[in-house]
Write a structure and sequence with these properties.
By secondary structure, the protein is mainly alpha-helical. The protein has 4 helices and 2 strands. A hairpin with a 2-residue loop joins strand 1 and strand 2. It is flat. The protein starts with a helix and ends with a helix. It is found in: Mitochondrion inner membrane.
């Protein structure tokens, strides 16, 4: 029964050191291209030049994550968040180690 099942599933399985495992592709079979949504064509709403500029800025593929594309203020908020997280973790470790060692 097991040999029959393996022979039917052979295209989906690969053998590693005598054991069979499911072979999953590392790269998707096709890439999905995303296009920006044009809301003005469907709803009749007008996009202001400022909104068009922001839309272009955030959709630009420059390697930055979207939460850092807003400029200097986004970088300041991101770094302050990281610093506060590190300070909180250090304070937490100090608190727990003081309880453990006491």
């Amino acid at each position: 029964m097991q040999r029959n099942l393996i022979s039917k599933l052979r295209p989906l399985l690969r053998q590693v050191n005598g054991c069979y495992s499911i072979a999953t592709p590392l790269v998707p079979s096709r890439s999905i291209q995303m296009s920006p949504v044009k809301m003005s064509g469907r709803t009749g709403a007008k996009i202001t030049p400022k909104m068009a500029k922001l839309q272009k800025q955030y959709q630009e593929d420059n390697g930055k994550p979207v939460f850092l594309k807003g400029g200097v203020m986004d970088n300041v908020l991101f770094m302050s968040t990281l610093v506060l997280c590190v300070v909180g973790l250090v304070g937490d470790f100090i608190l727990w180690f003081s309880y453990i060692l006491a």
